[in-house]
Amino acid sequence: IRDQHLAAVEERKIKSLVALLVETQMKKLEIKLRHFEELETIMDREREALEYQRQQLLADRQAFHMEQLKYAEMRARQQHFQQMHQQQQQQQQPPPPLALSVGSQPLPSSGAPLAPAAHS
Questions:
Q1: CA 83 to centroid of chain Cα atoms
Q2: Per-residue pLDDT tens digits for 74-103
Q3: 84 and 92 Cβ atoms separated by less than 8 Å
Q4: Could you report the per-residue pLDDT of 51-62, keeping only the tens digit for each?
């Protein structure tokens, strides 16, 4: 009877230790699961932050290209107006006087008289 009692006590101790081991393993698994859930939350936040930065970058690029287009358009208009102004000035200027050679030599464009031509 005593041996049976000791065997029963040992069996209860073993069952108790096995139950404690299983409970400890379960707690470890729960801790790991919580850790993974926290990591997943962190990854989700980082993914959202990256997506926001990506959208911001796209918006910045679009704004930059719009500014480039506006600048190019402004320069094209400015050049067009300068050409128009130059054309108007050319149309308003009287034509240059024709040089007449009645008894005198025509003046070159510099306004100085030409040197007499050497006769052979």
A1: 35
A2: 999 999 999 999 988 888 776 666 665 555
A3: no
A4: 999 999 999 999
pLDDT in tens, 11-28: 999 999 999 999 999 999
Note whether 99 and 106 are within 8 A (CB).
yes
Question: Which tokens hold the place of 100?
Answer: 């007449």
- Please name the residue ranges forming H helices in 93-113: none
99 within 8 A of 107, measured Cβ to Cβ: yes
Contact in structure between 64 and 71 (CB atoms under 8 Å): no
Distance of CA 97 to the CA centre of its chain: 59
CA 45/CA 15 separation, integer angstroms: 45
What pTM was computed for the model? 0.49
